[in-house]
């Protein structure tokens, strides 16, 4: 299964149904009065955090999510059915960012507006305004030239009643008939000023790039787009001075917006290190995670999670460890796999710096450690004060054994303990895991949890 941790989607709540203009028609009841029902409310769009999901893969191939609209009101006081709520499930740790307002179907995504449009290639001429394709109207299933088109007389004029219905947003089948279910009065007196431009509530104000919400608890719900309110039928406009109101309200428009979803893994410990220091080997040795392992850099291309179990006297102790792709110099600026995966370390509570001997010229263990700390510092302030643990891997090799004493002596001057380990043989891993567990307990106490 592909690991997708960033997608852009469009969400649109349903529009509210129009209220109806109708009259009570009953035997022996003269002048029955208004009986137009209300339109149904549009359906909301709700994001739901789901612990069963591990990637945003499903949303990558389904970009548009539209909730159903409310049905229009009917006669005899019948209210239209409301649109059902549309639930969009996302993995735990999904951050929701605002990208722009979605105003209609088939519109250009807002982030494409930042791109410079391509220039017209040589040899292709663009016709000036007024030339080229003619405007064509479809009336009663036949093509008719648009009236008033420059240079040509109009062959036919569109029915004014149909044009009025189109302006009111009537469905295609209603336009074809030329009449609404409630008669001409509903068409003539539908409130235009309070129609599609009015929403159920004052729309929320976001700037592009604003963080709307972090969904990090299983079952957490966020109503991201509210459905439009159904219009009131003419029964609501009856008064002592107007016993036969012939007007109704149009339903309001549902909210719509473009979103950017970013998945940030939820883990207790994040393994940080250069490529090919044995991060994948370590997580496969201490957990049941089975990442790809190879003797070449950047074997790991997607984050891996592993659950580590430690024995306890009264209960089993567990922690989640994350292995992210190796960092390189300049990762905070996007080099290598860069900040695409640095953000997966943001939610970790403890960082494990994994060092290992490397034959590359200019590579030294302490220089590697300082470079990793520098990349984390440049990426953002969220890593300041976070507990660190330093481990030296590959002590099963001659090069690793030779580096233990010198590295431990240098780190002792910085008050940093060193844990020599071998991910291949398992030597030293038990002591390392206990040290990580103690750091997690100290972090919980510091937060008061």
UniProtKB/TrEMBL annotation:
Compositional bias per record (Acidic residues), positions renumbered to this chain: 112-121
Skewed-composition ranges (Basic residues): 186-198
Enzyme class: hydrolase
Binding-site list for Mg(2+): 280, 300
Record localization: Cytoplasm
Binding, GTP: 273-280, 298-302, 323-326, 393-396, 422-424
Co-factor(s): Mg(2+)
Compositional bias ranges of the Basic and acidic residues kind: 102-111
Listed Gly residues bias regions: 71-83
Entries under PROSITE patterns matching the protein: G_OBG, GTP1_OBG, OBG
SUPFAM superfamilies (UniProt xref): Obg GTP-binding protein N-terminal domain (SSF82051), P-loop containing nucleoside triphosphate hydrolases (SSF52540)
GO CC, alphabetical: cytoplasm
Entry keywords, A to Z: Cytoplasm, GTP-binding, Hydrolase, Magnesium, Metal-binding, Nucleotide-binding
CDD domains recorded: Obg (cd01898)
Domain of life: Bacteria
Gene Ontology molecular function: any one: magnesium ion binding
EC number(s) per entry: 3.6.5.-
Domain OBG-type G: residue ranges: 267-441
BP GO annotations: ribosome biogenesis
Family: Belongs to the TRAFAC class OBG-HflX-like GTPase superfamily. OBG GTPase family.
Oligomeric and partner information: Monomer.
Name assigned to this protein: GTPase Obg
Gene: obg
């Amino acid at each position: 299964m592909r690991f997708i941790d960033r997608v852009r989607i469009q969400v649109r709540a349903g529009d509210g149904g129009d209220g109806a203009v109708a009259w009570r028609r009953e035997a022996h009841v003269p002048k029955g009065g208004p009986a137009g029902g209300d339109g149904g409310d549009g359906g909301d769009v709700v994001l739901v955090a789901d612990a069963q999901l591990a990637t945003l893969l499903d949303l990558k191939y389904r970009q548009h999510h539209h909730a159903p609209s409310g049905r229009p009101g009917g006669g005899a006081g019948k209210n239209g059915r409301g649109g059902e709520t549309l639930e969009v499930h996302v993995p735990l740790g999904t951050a929701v960012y605002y990208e722009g307002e979605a105003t209609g179907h088939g519109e250009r995504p807002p982030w494409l507006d930042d791109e410079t449009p391509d220039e017209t290639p040589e040899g292709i001429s663009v016709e000036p305004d007024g030339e080229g394709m003619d405007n064509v109207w479809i009336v009663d299933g036949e093509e008719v030239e648009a009236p008033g088109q420059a240079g040509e007389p109009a062959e036919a004029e569109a029915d004014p009643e149909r044009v009025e219905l189109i302006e009111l947003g009537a469905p295609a089948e209603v336009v074809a008939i030329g009449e609404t279910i409630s008669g001409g009065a509903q068409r003539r007196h539908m409130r235009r000023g309070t129609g599609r431009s009015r929403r159920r509530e004052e729309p929320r104000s976001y700037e592009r790039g604003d963080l709307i919400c972090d969904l990090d608890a299983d079952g957490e719900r966020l109503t991201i787009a509210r459905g439009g309110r159904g219009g009131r039928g003419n029964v609501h406009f009856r008064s002592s001075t107007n016993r036969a109101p012939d007007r109704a309200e149009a339903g309001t428009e549902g909210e719509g917006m473009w979103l950017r979803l970013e998945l940030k893994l939820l883990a207790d410990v994040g393994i940080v290190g250069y490529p090919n220091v044995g991060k994948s080997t370590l997580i496969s040795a201490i957990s049941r995670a089975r990442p790809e392992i190879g003797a070449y850099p950047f074997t790991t291309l997607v984050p891996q999670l592993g659950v580590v179990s430690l024995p306890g006297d009264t209960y089993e102790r567990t922690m989640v460890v994350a292995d992210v792709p190796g960092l390189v110099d300049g990762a905070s600026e996007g080099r290598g796999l860069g900040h695409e995966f640095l953000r997966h370390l943001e939610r970790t509570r403890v960082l494990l710096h994994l060092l290992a001997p490397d034959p590359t010229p200019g590579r030294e263990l302490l220089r590697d450690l300082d470079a990793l700390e520098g990349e984390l510092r440049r990426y953002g302030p969220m890593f300041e004060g976070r507990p660190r643990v330093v481990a030296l891997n590959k002590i099963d090799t001659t090069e690793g054994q030779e580096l233990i004493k010198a590295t431990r002596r240098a780190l002792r001057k910085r008050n940093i303990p060193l844990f020599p380990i071998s991910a291949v043989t398992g030597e030293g891993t038990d002591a390392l895991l206990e040290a990580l567990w103690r750091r997690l307990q100290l972090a919980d106490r510091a937060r008061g949890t």
